[in-house]
Design goal:
The structure is a homodimer.
Chain A (H helix, E strand, L loop, with lengths): L8 H15 L6 H8 L3 H8 L1 H17 L3 H5 L6 H12 L15 H4 L2 H9 L4 H27 L9 H20 L4 H13 L8
Helix pairs in contact in A: 1-2, 1-4, 3-4, 4-9, 6-9, 6-11, 8-9, 9-10, 10-11
Chain A binds a DNA duplex through helix 3.
Chain lengths: 207, 207
DNA sequence: ACCCTTCTTGACAACTCAGTACAGAACCAT
DNA sequence: ATGGTTCTGTACTGAGTTGTCAAGAAGGGT
């Protein structure tokens, strides 16, 4: 028996995420968020507890989205696991889109993983942001490791290789592409890096 | 026939770099730079043209330092090139120190490549910073590619591999470690990533 | 010893920012 | 319809920001 909120929190957090990804945390003012979301300052503070609260909730939403995008792309039967890994790599080096089935972003720097950008910018002085960012990393890394195990079971990757180590390495390459992309390199270059990484995956010995 | 400046510009830019690496560009105020360097605002504006000028000149100094650190570590005769590459990888994943022969930094996030941090934070809206950052990347990448060629000449790396592609990939891993380090992972984990990447380098076929 | 040039310092004005408070609007239940 | 509760928008405050300016200090050449 009260007035319902007239906005969709997910939509607001989405717009805020876009703003943070474009301008960084310290480069975004509350007025910027207000303009990007259409909400007034009062509503922002009441619903999300200000700028920092918006960031935390936007990152939580980002984390949740990772379970639907990358994880679903990697999960599946053992046969085809290597191909799924390949397809994922080729897509991931071009950035993390704001929504599924949307081209990542106009410029590559804004397409960089939201969690990675925030961790690098303010993670050192904001443990909560650092932890949230690492959660985002872990959930994808775990999915990659599981996909590697599936490929191993299918005989496509050397069974002696440590799947967790490989997953760390592949994810490090993907995050590194966020940086290389921020340098202004072309998408083709990032594709080439992804292909190089994939080509070096340890194949089982022929006998 | 005039008063000489009482500070060492290199020392000032060094202190400013430390501040930028710790707090980011937008997270650093002119007062912060003033406190970190000991210079008053007036001197900062007269000598470096304000905050943005300090950044550009600090990045130029950083670029110059890359020619003395990583490049010298990688250059040398063909025999031992692979070992140099190995040693460089193991060191590079732990960050770029402020000065040669100094432990990279107390916390890993502040040890991340200065150019990479700035490119990710403001490179998209600041072409000059993006270009400078990419120059830093290119000089190291070129040195790595040359070292790969030396290792190929020495028969330690598959001669069919494209040394430039390998250099891109290795540098991407190193930059990716800046991100993984910002997530809070231990130095041991970064070492492990470096070793995994090194182990996957294509060796020449035994015959 | 003097003077001129440059550096240095601190203060200043204009502006932006984060966060708060208050008044008005909207909605649901009765 | 009406009332009570919550949401919405805006104005406000105090702190922090940038860039500039002028007055004083310091050194080198004559």
């Amino acid at each position: 028996m009260a007035r319902p909120r007239s906005f969709d929190p997910d939509h607001v957090l989405h717009a805020a995420e876009r703003q943070f990804r474009t301008s960084g945390y310290n480069g975004t003012s509350v007025d910027d968020i207000s303009a990007a979301t259409g909400l007034g300052r009062g509503s922002l503070y009441a619903a999300f507890d200000g700028k920092h609260g918006v960031l935390l909730q936007a990152m939580a939403g980002y984390f949740a989205r990772l379970g639907q995008g990358p994880r679903n792309m990697l999960a599946g039967p053992d046969e085809g696991a290597l191909e799924r890994l390949h397809a994922y790599l080729l897509r991931a080096v071009h950035g993390v889109p704001l929504a599924a089935d949307v081209p990542p972003a106009p410029d590559r720097a804004a397409a960089a993983c939201f969690a990675a950008k925030m961790a690098l910018e303010i993670g050192a002085s904001d443990p909560e942001v650092q932890r949230l960012a690492n959660d985002c990393f872990s959930v994808v890394r775990t999915a990659v490791a599981e996909c590697v195990r599936a490929a191993q079971r299918n005989g496509d990757i050397d069974p002696d290789a440590d799947p967790d180590d490989l997953a760390y390495l592949l994810l490090t390459v993907i995050r590194g592409c966020d940086v290389v992309g921020a340098y202004g390199h072309s998408p083709d270059r990032l594709t080439s890096i992804a292909e190089s990484a994939f080509a070096l995956l340890p194949r089982p010995r022929h006998h």
